Each structure stands twice: as C-alpha cells, then as structure tokens.
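Morning F.,

Quick status update on the modeling queue. The single chain you submitted on Monday has been processed. Sequence for confirmation:
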Amino acid sequence: MGIECAAVYSDADDRAAHVSEADYAVRIGPARALDSYLNVNAILEAAKASGADAVHPGYGFLSENSMFARACAISKLNFIGPPVEAIEKMGSKAAARQLMSDGGVPVIPGYHGEDQTDERLFAEAKSIGFPVLIKPVMGGGGKGMYIVYDETDFGEALNASRGVASSAFGDSRVLLEKYIAQSRHVEVQIFGDKHGNHVHLWERDCSVQRRHQKIIEEAPAPDLGDALRSKFGRAAVAAAKQVKYENAGTVEFILDVSDGKREFYFLEMNTRLQVEHPVTE
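Structure tokens below.
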C-alpha cells in the first residue's frame, strides 16, 4: 500500500521478525509488558517520534483498551479500530447483553441487573433454572466463570466468581446465564466503516476449546446449512449496527444443539482484529 510502518518493541523482542521487517523500529521499554507494551505514554511517544499518523493496536495488550483509544485521539493519532464508545459498551458483558437485546439480537436467558445482592442473584438463578453459569461482568478469557448444577452450590460459586472478578478485573459484579451443556461456539467476522456500512465475512467454528481457550478453528463452520449460516450473518451485522461499529471485529455466538435444537444466542463481541482472522482469510 506504500504506507511506511514503524514498529515498537521491548528488550525481549529486539531481534523479533517485526522489528527487522518494519521501516522503523522504536524501543519502548524493558521486557516486562507493564513497562513496555502496556505503557501507553511510551507507545504514544514512539508514534510521535516516528512521525506516525495512526496506531494499529494489533490483537493483544491494549487492542481493546478504551483509555488507549481515547489517548490516541487526544494525541491526534488515528486509532485503527472501533470507536471508544463501542469498546466501552462491548467491554461490559451486562451492557453488551442489554444493547444486543434492544437491537433484536438473541441473547441467552439470564440476569444482568444492577441488584447484586446474594438474595437477588440466588432468586434469579432459581428463576432461570439450574444449571446456570456465573460470569464476571467485565471478564474475559473464561476467568471467573463457574457452572452451578445445584442450588446448594450457588453461594460458594458466587463468592469464588466475585473474588476472581475483583482481583482480575477490578469489578466484582457478575451476571447469570442459563448454562447450555450441549453447544457449539460459532463466531462471525464483521467489518464496518465510518459511513454506517457493515458486512460480515462469514463464520468460524471454534467449539474445540480447553479451559475456555480456543484450540482449533474451522471455516466455514461444518453442518450449519445455508439457512442457519445466513441467520448468523444477519445477526452479526445487526450487532455491529447496534453499536455503530467501525473496522474489524468478531461477534461470538453459542449454538444450542441439545435435543435437536438449532438456536443460537449472542455471547460477546471482540472489538479488535482477532488472532484467528487468518482462518477467515
């Protein structure tokens, strides 16, 4: 494309391929990520020093950090990613569920209210019906998620989830979802521009996981059929439009296949370019 690229690196990566292949390379700190790849000021200084007009956050570290995206805007740097508002809304599982529900995107039966008392959460869990899944509102990567099969175990699991949520995400709030035991995990690649146009580039099946981390992805997802595949695409585009999404992103769904069902529900949106994007390409 004829666009010069400046790479940043820590001491751990001074001989990495991206350092030698970029037009310019700027050291941003020692090996520890907190002092380099998570150091917003160091990255912004590197961008200014190299004369960059834009910052591409990649797929890790600060890629879904709304404060970093806002800092880029303040520094007159184009953040190659979604708007700050989209990152913030999709970063909260509770806010994302409500937003998707308002936009007609199917969501898993559950509870994501502000009343976080033990009594209210227990009552909601019984109303949903066990087994239920307890998830941190601001969580990710499967951290703090607990499956509760019986109401006698709810209190212990709730405390454990809150503890992880508080220490890992700085927010002890949780939400409840109906646990779907027989399911598939299907995600849809979406793109949006600044003019309100949104498209999907079909789906990937990422059901093979270990500890909530994806191991194998396949595109197209097997055994969906054209009708269901189209429904996934339409729902993903609706989700993107609901949050006024821009750039590349992924909308994740869970497909209930128990008792011959073929119903799917919104799971979350990844407001960044995913590691798995080459599977779609």
